[in-house]
TrEMBL record:
The organism's place on the tree of life at top rank: Bacteria
Membrane topology of this protein: Multi-pass membrane protein
Protein's name in the database: BCCT family transporter
Organism: Aquimarina litoralis
This protein's UniProt keywords: Cell membrane, Membrane, Transmembrane, Transmembrane helix, Transport
Subcellular location: Cell membrane
Transmembrane regions listed in the UniProt entry: 9-27, 47-66, 86-106, 133-156, 188-207, 227-247, 259-287, 315-332, 344-364, 405-428, 440-460, 472-494
């Protein structure tokens, strides 16, 4: 691959972020309107493309897993996994989903039951969980997995650098000019960096807002933005300590701790609820999700919820998962050396999905029962930031459990942030697998400052939800990346099939 300096990549990326920040601060309303208009345009005209890309990616990975290629390792024949399966799955899950499963655990299933997106011959409870499975399941993890496989192949088999542009190495034979190569590869890497930054800022903003919402609810108060900023600084500081220690001593330890606490929380709700109803609903919803997966994926016939719903929910989710694919996929690749493609696909595509499905079933079915026992449902679970805290008020030890949820939210945000800082540092430090601590510190500071700025701006103008604008910005930045993903997959298989099959 043609060379360009990592310092130039860093300077250009930071320059674009500063340029965007300037316009966002000075022309807030105009930028917000433009983001809103552009995101709606993309979802309207490219929404169908997102759906077909998601379905195609899932089917492609399943075929790859059962084919002879599934035996191939990410690395040399003698390479073996560096991490245990539990540690490996803990890290990839914490990086890929994190606080999102707490944010939506109750609110989304209840919303889907109250406003069913589709109507089939099953119950509203089944429809609600089936559609929640669809939006959090195989497709999301397929976007991560395919990027992890491609990057892992070029990183560990072809000995390329840890850069998004490494997945397009085959273009060297097509693009003759070195200057043109530099321009194309640098553009790909800058796009991946910006998408990662915007994705993290949106996620951190949502997460810290939920933590503040939990504190407001528990303490019956209304903290101002200073508390949100203090929470952000705390999370950023913990993330820097984690990423400073590295993958083994920092990220792995916190990720494993996250899984233990999450599992304990899941078991607590499961054993305190109607176990038979939960298990029955899980099996029933999972069966229908698998049977209906293809028509759901292309919104065919009765499985079409309509353009308005798709625009507000599914298209947005697909764009969000695509936006997180660069850093999540590369991070998964970084921790997956020595594993076979078959193991990686099963570990990334199936195991986290099934765990997520059971999580939503436990919380969703329990919330359904709480709603049914009310004289009149008044939207107790409508607020995405406080719904899970309201939910736990119906259980024993609510104070202890809600405090645990807040700590878990902080911990999940730390693992998402430290994973992103680690990947960004690899990007800008010559594509090294173990980037310098100087780059880790720099990106920790940059992400913190950028996130604080967005929070301040969001509170400065009450009539404009800047955080929502940041989320919708991901829809815009994910479009070119989704188009590049198609090219990336084609180039990978052309290159991959030339090599010897074990």
């Amino acid at each position: 691959m043609s060379k360009y300096t990592s310092s130039s990549l860093l300077k250009i990326s930071l320059g674009i972020l500063l340029f965007f920040s300037f316009f966002l601060y000075i022309f807030t309303e105009e930028v917000y309107i433009q983001i809103e208009t552009t995101s709606i345009f993309i979802r309207k005209w490219f929404g169908g493309f997102y759906l077909w890309l998601g379905l195609g990616t899932v089917l492609l990975l399943l075929v790859l897993a059962v084919s002879p290629w599934g035996k191939r390792r990410l690395g040399q024949d003698q390479d073996r996994p560096q991490f245990s399966r539990l540690a490996w799955i803990s890290m990839l899950y914490s990086a890929g989903m994190g606080s999102g499963i707490l944010l939506r655990a109750v609110q989304e299933p209840v919303f889907m039951r109250c406003y069913a997106p589709i109507y089939t011959n099953t119950t509203l409870e089944n429809i609600a969980l089936e559609y929640t499975f669809y939006q959090w399941g195989f497709t999301a993890w397929a976007f991560y997995a395919v990027f992890a496989i491609v990057i892992g192949y070029y990183l560990f088999v072809r000995s390329k650098k840890v850069l998004s542009s490494s997945a397009f190495s085959s273009l060297e034979g097509i693009i003759v000019s070195k200057n043109a190569q530099n321009l194309v590869f640098k553009g790909i890497d800058i796009l991946a960096i910006l998408t990662t930054v915007f994705g993290l800022v949106a996620a951190i903003g949502l997460g810290t807002t939920q933590i503040k919402g939990g504190l407001d609810h528990l303490l019956q108060t209304n903290f101002d933005s200073k508390i949100t900023i203090l929470l952000l600084i705390l999370i950023s500081g913990l993330a820097f300590i984690s990423v400073f220690k590295g993958v083994n001593k920092g990220i792995k330890v916190i990720s494993t701790w996250n899984i233990y606490i999450t599992f304990a929380l899941l078991i607590f709700v499961f054993t305190q609820s109607d176990i038979v109803a939960i298990l029955s609903q899980f099996c029933y919803s999972l069966f229908h999700y698998i049977v209906d997966f293809i028509p759901l994926s292309i919104a065919y016939g009765v499985y079409d919820p309509g353009e308005s719903f798709l625009t507000d929910w599914t298209y947005y989710y697909w764009a969000f998962w695509l936006a997180w694919a660069p850093f999540t996929g590369i991070f998964i690749a970084r921790i997956s050396r020595g594993r076979t493609l078959r193991e990686l696909i099963i570990g990334v595509l199936l195991v986290p999905s099934l765990g997520t499905f059971f999580w939503f079933t436990v919380f969703g079915e329990s919330a359904f029962q709480i709603v049914d026992n009310l004289d009149f449902y008044q939207g107790e679970f409508d607020n995405v930031f406080s719904s899970i805290f309201v939910f736990f008020e119906n259980y024993t030890f609510q104070g202890f459990i809600n405090t645990t949820v807040i700590l878990l939210l902080i911990s999940f945000l730390v693992t998402s942030l430290d994973s992103a800082v680690f990947v960004l540092s690899m990007f800008t430090d010559q594509g090294k697998q173990n980037p310098s601590k100087k780059h880790r510190l720099l990106w920790s500071i940059v992400l913190t400052i950028f996130a604080i700025g967005i929070i301040l701006l969001g509170n400065a103008k009450e009539d404009i939800n800047v955080l929502t604008a940041m989320q919708k910005l991901l829809i815009i930045t994910s479009l070119p990346f989704s188009l590049l993903m198609v090219i990336m997959i084609l180039l990978f298989f052309i290159d991959f099939r030339k090599s010897k099959i074990d």
